[in-house]
Amino acid sequence: MKVSLEDLKNLERDGKVKIHTPELVEQIMKSSEDKKIKKDGKNVRNIMEKMDKF
Q1: Measured between alpha carbons, how far is 31 from 41 in angstroms, rounded to an integer?
Q2: CA–CA gap between residue 9 and residue 4 (Å, rounded)
Q3: Would you say 37 and 29 are in contact if contact means Cβ atoms under 8 Å apart?
Q4: Nearest to 24 by CA among 6, 8, 48, 7
Q5: What are the DSSP calls for 1-49, one per residue?
Q6: Helix (H, G, I), strand (E, B) or coil at 51
Q7: How many Å apart are CA 36 and CA 49, to the nearest integer?
Q8: pTM
């Protein structure tokens, strides 16, 4: 099943889903107390951005 970006944004606006962008995920990870999670924030962002290109 495929969902358009517009439909996803509508669901987020209605509070039914939360869209995690690469930037948000990196920010969340960098604010973690766990040093390993903090360290991997940039790598996870890069992977998410790379996968978005496919």
Answers
A1: 9
A2: 9
A3: yes
A4: 48
A5: ----HHHHHHHHHTTS-----HHHHHHHHHT-S-HHHHHHHHHHHHHHH
A6: helix
A7: 20
A8: 0.73
